[in-house]
Queue: 2 jobs
Job 1
Amino acid sequence: MRAAPATLETIDLTIRFGGHVAVDRVSCAFEPGTLTAIVGPNGAGKTTYFNLISGQLEASAGRVRLGGEDITALPAPLRTRRGLGRAFQLTNLFPNLSVQENVRLAIQARRGIGLNFWSIASRDRALVDEADAVLERVALAEKRFQIASSLPHGDQRKLEVGVLIALDPRVYMFDEPTAGMSVDEVPVILDLIREIRADRSRTVLLVEHKMDVVRELSDRIIVLHNGRLAADGEPADVIASPVVQQAYLGVEA
Ligand SMILES: Nc1ncnc2c1ncn2[C@@H]1O[C@H](COP(=O)(O)OP(=O)(O)OP(=O)(O)O)[C@@H](O)[C@H]1O
Ligand SMILES: [Mg+2]
């Protein structure tokens, strides 16, 4: 059974590192069925904002809510269980397990089948078939028996997205998902993000520097600048706004 759609909200979310305010009172709501791109210059606070939402960092002030529930005090694993799904740069893969086992474990986690059921579950044909279906989607079916750590970087990132899809979270968070990928690998990831967005029941957040990708995929763009929410709106309006033209696209476009 799939988890119900959920709105993600941050209210005055703030973090200070010493005297530096990396995320500064950011209030924003993200609705199911929308893909919001988060843009802004290097060091603007985008990744830190993600870390505060997913629980990797503890907020200095402010709240995070998911589906109306305040999750600010919850550690990262419990936020994951509530349905926040984040693709990390490779850190949520089991390096010594096969590609297929990585996806299978994610499916088991979603279904609440504990790891002590491993030996039984490993014989579960349906589980293996479901894992293979995910691997087809991320173009890794042929590599399913390879050990995750032996894959080239681009394939590991595809596997990471596969694990995320297998978890089927209510909120998908992608932080520069195609960074470090070769040109021919990028479309696989973008197609997947397109598919997730087309589902229309999931909330998707995408940090991305490539403006052509942002323009094509997003329903809405927010701009972070010096840790503050500097713009928020329809893609065309935000891209045309002075803050983006000057602070961002001026160097990027
Ligand atoms: N753990 C930390 N300790 C101290 N300062 C930090 C920490 N994490 C991030 N920062 C600082 O917070 C600011 C925001 O960094 P962040 O990585 O969120 O930017 P970003 O928008 O993701 O940039 P990029 O586009 O380069 O990925 C930077 O000035 C960074 O140096
Ligand atoms: Mg970043």
Note: The pocket of magnesium ion (ligand 2) is lined by residues 46-47 (CB under 6 Å).
Job 2
Amino acid sequence: MSKEDYWELLRKEVIDEGLCTQCGTCVGLSKGKLRFEEKKGIPLPTLVEEKNSSDIEKSCYSGCPARYCSYPKLNRFVFKKEPKNWIPGITKASHIGYATDEKIRRNGASGGVITAMLVHLLQTKKITGVICLKMGAKVPYKAEPVVAKTEEEILACSQSIYSVTPVNTILEKSAKEKGPLAYVGLPDQVASIRKLQQQGHPSAANIKYVFGPYTGTQMYFEAIQSFLRSHSVKSEKEIVSLQYRAGEWPGYLQIKLKDGRVLKAEKFYYNYLIPFFITSSSLQVADFTNELTDISVGDAWSPKYESIKKGFSVVLARSEQGIELLREMEGKKSLSLEKISLKDALDMHGHMIDFKKRGSFIRNSWKKSSPDYGYQPQNIARSRIAVEFVLAAVFFTGKLRIARWVVEHLPLKIVGPCFNTLRLRWKNASKSTKRKGLWETKFIITEKKE
Ligand SMILES: Cc1cc2nc3c(=O)[nH]c(=O)nc-3n(C[C@H](O)[C@H](O)[C@H](O)COP(=O)(O)OP(=O)(O)OC[C@H]3O[C@@H](n4cnc5c(N)ncnc54)[C@H](O)[C@@H]3O)c2cc1C
């Protein structure tokens, strides 16, 4: 039998079907044979011309989380059991928290919890480094995956990056580290790491701790380019520094330019770009709370914390070593943690949980070929499917060149607040349908038992 062409499989089943989530694994494990190339603003893995595709190793395909990614199987591998509740995944404890080190808290995207955990693990010598994203590592407007090995390097990697950044392209390099390492990634990137660990692949063997942000929506870099154009800045090369969550929580987009100008947009105003530049992966992946991590962290959206500002995170501990870490840090007073019920923690994000745990499954069911997560909602009400048609129309319109042109030519002072008002109105109008039956949704296991 001739050798399987794994590039051909990946191309046919994932890339050509529009399922690639840009996790970066295939490129990272390809020994330079694959690279990301932008096609119509979307970065996609591409064969480097002169390289022979039959040499692409199996893990580039088997580590891909986009088409086949059995959550029941991965849960059994990571946590030795399947979740009772598929909405949050396995959760041992839920908290509201923040880093007590004011600098870490202020620099963080929400409460600085992820950065504080990484610093603690390094200080206590439980890890030798962290795979995370550093803004401006090569060019000021882009983030790159790095292995941060000092406290300063970890601090320089705090904050959220809302443009697509394939973390797992670093795997070949990070595999050379003795470790143990910690890893921070989005849900699809984490799922790929877990797949590789389950397969016993050496590239992920040195990763001991896995953390990750909740992940609602992400945008293509074109969103930043559009934002620049709407301020009459022609190229991203004019950028000196870019922060997606600058200033006090919840923060604002801040872009400093070579000519000394500083462009700012409040987080909720900058969100007007979401319908125009949302990634297909945000619409596809059903995991919002980063279910395969040891600890996952999101913004603590609640009027109580939002009125205090400063920065608060919602923190879900999923594994025993996750729980131990939180206990240790609480003991050392490096994290402030207040226990809350899982229900209260999830209630803060009902809208996004619905967007993923029902919305993603509806959207995926409309595709010719869709991801196989090994589980799915048993039944989704027709009224909820109708809501998804409205959203699909919004995203379809947002992709049109004319719509993007119009929004670019309207002043942000008007677009930002208008978008925010429309968003809140839509949220309120669709709330009852979106919440109806959400917490009672029954999920069925669809994976084929081996
Ligand atoms: C694309 C994206 C979408 C999000 N959507 C939501 C949402 O809808 N609701 C919500 O509550 N929270 C969301 N979050 C999470 C939130 O923005 C914070 O990341 C989270 O609350 C952790 O805050 P922190 O202060 O503890 O993290 P920090 O201490 O600031 O540390 C953040 C860590 O995450 C890493 N990181 C940042 N961006 C990325 C990325 N793109 N890929 C991989 N690693 C990254 C950094 O390198 C750093 O190590 C999102 C985050 C991202 C990146």
Note: The CA atoms of residues 4 and 54 lie 7 Å apart.
